[in-house]
Please model this.
Amino acid sequence: MSQSNPKGIPPLQVLKSTLKLSHPITDKEDEGIQKLIKSGGREKVFELRRILQDELMDRVSIFRNGKDLQKAIETLQLLLDRSNHIGLYSNDSGCNPEMALALRFKGMVRLGLCVACGALMRTESRGCHAREDYPERNDREWLKRTLAVWPEAQGLPVLSYEPSSKVWEVPPGDRGYGSTKIICSEDPAICGEGNQAVLD
Model:
């Protein structure tokens, strides 16, 4: 592509005019860029990202508890609202890291909310999800995958659960590390016949 980018023309418009592109997806992206440039919002995306990082590291890290997770969800909901008022220091149409982050930031907060909500609902400890208020690994209730979807205009993700497959190289059981108690599944196909209800 030899055409240069005339000053002030957004890069997506240059690309579309050069390649004769018009598609609902690229049109929507271009609309989002123009809205951001003209927004005049007072929130600064780098500061919002710092708050997001700190909240996830402090309250939604490996060691978690219900009180901290609930507080993180409240903080992330406020960040999601603040992300609607992001303004830019630079409207440069070239390489603009601030604009790139601003365009992605709402999705980053939503992903953080999916993780925090899923962790709050999962009342057990499993792998890198260590609930200090629920130290047992509960195969009876939680040997399943968490699925999160975010319907349009919804304030929080909607969670559902999918049963785990019954095909493992190493079936669920004691891994020999830590002091986690295991609440076994009652399904013999998963835990085998004759397992104790709770293993030490």
The two ends are 65 Å apart (CA to CA).
